[in-house]
Design goal:
The complex is a heterodimer. Chain A has two domains: 15-81, P-loop containing nucleotide triphosphate hydrolases (Rossmann fold, 3-Layer(aba) Sandwich), CATH 3.40.50; 108-197, 3-Layer(aba) Sandwich (Rossmann fold), CATH 3.40.50. Chain A has a four-stranded antiparallel sheet with strand order 2-1-4-5, with helices on one face. Chain A has a four-stranded parallel sheet with strand order 3-8-7-6, covered by helices on one side. The longest helix of chain A has 14 residues, at 125-138. The radius of gyration of chain A is 17 Å and the shape is globular. In chain A, strand 7 (172-175), helix 6 (187-190) and strand 8 (196-197) form a beta-alpha-beta unit. Chain A is α/β, with parallel strands linked by helices. Chain A has helices at 53-60, 83-90, 108-119, 125-138, 154-166, 187-190; strands spanning 15-24, 27-37, 41-42, 68-73, 76-77, 93-96, 172-175, 196-197. In chain A, helix 3 (108-119) packs parallel to helix 5 (154-166). Chain B has two domains: 1-40; 47-265, no CATH class. The longest helix of chain B is centred in the N-terminal third of the chain and has 40 residues, at 45-84. The radius of gyration of chain B is 23 Å and the shape is elongated. Classes of the chains: A alpha/beta, B mainly alpha. The interface between A and B is medium-sized, with 26 and 15 residues.
């Protein structure tokens, strides 16, 4: 599998937020957030429910537009990128959802194949299957290959969701509530760090 | 009415109008985006074929059964009235006109609005509330093209095909009844049936089916795509897909028939 790393100078942050504001109606969620994440760094954002942790990482990945402020990811300003450029950038950003967000009409194998088949069209069937087996092994769920998400436990679904993100070998990992539904002893094994991790 | 109440009423009216225009604007934006994404590569050919199978093949049995029974019952119920005037020989023409010009596109669309429209609304709604659409977006896939364009194209292509099946099987149902009652031959029945049918009748029915198919797909996708508030939202999306589709189908039916009649009169 090819793996293109961005060639940013190590003294430049891979994620940079400056004075980011976001409100939903009268509910001001983010008020002037500024943050730098450097290569190899792991940042944990803690806060009570509804304080905007999920909103923050959705803004970083370009899924939500901020009301004000600039967001630079791997040297590119997310707020001004067009649809196509944003999609190319997202290939370098892994996003693990709070609810795992597995496609429930697909088996575990099809869930993991999906991002590869669509984004790495040069890969052969054999290479795709090998990549699927590798990530499944990494999260300790090789035996679930042909099961549907509805047949898995909450923790297993979460790990498959993370495996689906890792299969594209992103440079940055964004985890939303990463330890929810996981066994405490497994947490350490499940989360590999990228160039930057939130 | 006191002078104090006037501004409030105006405000409510104005708010209602604003909402109606905003809704129209969103519908126009959604349809505009569909056409933009449809013509822009890469094309989701495999997904369109899969959806055609889901919409077409999985509805075929229901359409065929309904068509056969409709043709048979329609013939049975029309016979006594026609025989009063000694006009039972007109039965094949009457049934053919009714099925090809009105029943085939309308009944096919109503069945599909219930079966396919609710399915699309519920499926996309469930994907929306469980963040599956967002997951597709972050894995660099265009969810609108993959989920919406493929489904709208599938309904637009398959509903006219299902309508043809409905027409054929409906006429066959009618033939079975005519044959059992009067021992009419297959060829004689179909010759009599198509005597009064023109190309314009068939063309109008195909246009209707295409418009109905597009409506069912668009309404289902739009309701599903904007679903929120968990399982309640999914139920609402499925329900709204059926109700709005059916309402629009009746309006479109009236409009197309009126336009077609006006054009023929020219």
């Amino acid at each position: 599998m090819d793996h293109q790393h961005s060639h940013l100078p190590t003294d430049q942050p891979v994620i940079s937020l400056r004075d980011v504001y976001k409100a939903f109606g009268s509910n001001r969620v983010l008020q002037g957030v500024s943050l730098d994440v450097f290569s190899g760094e792991n940042v944990v954002v803690l806060g009570r429910s509804g304080t905007g942790k999920s909103v923050l990482i959705k803004i970083i990945s370009g899924m939500l537009p901020p009301d004000a402020g600039t967001i630079t990811v791997l040297g590119e300003d997310v707020t001004v990128l067009g649809e196509r450029d944003l999609r190319a950038l997202r290939l370098k950003i892994g996003f693990s959802f709070q609810s795992s967000a597995l496609y429930d009409s697909m088996t575990v194998r099809e869930n993991l194949e999906f991002p590869l088949v669509r984004n790495k069209r040069q890969l052969t069937r054999k290479e795709i299957l090998r990549a699927v087996a590798t990530v499944l092994d990494a999260v300790g769920l090789s035996q679930t290959m042909d099961q549907l998400p509805s047949e898995l436990s909450g923790g297993q679904r979460k790990r498959i969701g993370i495996a689906r993100t890792l299969i594209l070998r992103p440079e940055i990992m964004l985890y939303d509530e990463p330890t929810a539904a996981l066994d405490p002893h497994r947490d350490k094994r499940t989360y590999p760090a990228g160039a930057g991790t939130i | 009415m006191s002078s104090l109440e006037e501004p409030r009423e105006k405000h409510i009216l104005s708010r209602g109008l604003d909402e109606a225009f905003m809704r129209l604007y969103r519908v126009a934006g959604f349809i505009g985006r569909f056409f933009k994404e449809m013509v822009r590569p890469p094309y989701e050919i495999n997904e369109i074929i899969r959806q055609c199978y889901e919409v077409g093949y999985r509805s075929l049995m229901l359409i065929c059964m309904t068509a056969f029974i409709t043709g048979l019952v329609f013939t049975k119920q029309s016979r006594p009235s026609l025989s009063e005037f000694g006009a039972t020989s007109w039965l094949p023409s009457l049934v053919a006109i009714a099925i090809i010009k009105a029943l085939a596109p309308l009944v096919t669309a109503l069945i599909c609005a219930g079966k396919v429209g609710s399915n699309i609304g519920a499926e996309l709604g469930s994907m929306k509330v469980t963040e599956q659409i967002e997951a597709m977006e972050v894995s660099a896939t265009n969810p609108f093209k993959y989920l919406v364009v493929s489904r709208i194209m599938a309904t637009t292509i398959m509903i006219p095909i299902l309508m043809c099946f409905f027409g054929g099987i409906g006429l066959f149902g009618s033939y079975v009844d005519v044959h059992l009652s009067e021992n009419t031959s297959f060829i004689l029945f179909f010759e009599a049936a198509f005597e009064k049918i023109t190309f314009a009748d068939i063309y109008t029915s195909v246009v209707k089916a295409v418009v109905f198919g597009f409506t069912i797909g668009t309404v289902g996708c739009m309701q599903g795509y904007k679903a929120s508030q968990g399982t309640v939202g999914v139920g609402r999306a499925a329900n709204a897909s059926v109700v709005i589709s059916m309402f629009l189908i009746f309006i479109e039916e009236i409009t197309i028939v009126q336009i077609s009649n006006t054009l023929r009169a020219l």
